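Hi everyone,

Forwarding the result from last night's run.
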Amino acid sequence: MLRITTADLESIYQQAKQEYPGECCGILTAGTESGPSTVHRCRNIQDELHAKDPEQYPRDSRIAYFIEPGELFQIVRGAEKDGGGVSGFYHSHVDCDAYFSQEDKDRAMAWDEPAYPDAVYLVVSVCGVDTPS
């Protein structure tokens, strides 16, 4: 079960506001089942991918996110080394509601199976630079 503190949720909201008008993203890890998750802010490299290959990556960071693979690997490896694992992923939606889109569902899959079957996916919304929801 995902446990996230109010302070960590506020940290995610602040990241969403700071990275506006791009989507923010990150990983939640837990060392034990009963302890709260740890928030790991990640770098959204979607704009870099889009600039290098717009055919393969037609979306920019206003409507998509892509966690840098090396960063993802280090966070997952560190959590597993500490006896835990990934408890969730989060990202923001910009100037629209917070919902788990079809693109989000597709990106959460690997070969028709959930890439992280026990992970929770948290989506927050930021419109303008107001308070995310």
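The radius of gyration is 15 Å.

Cheers,
N.
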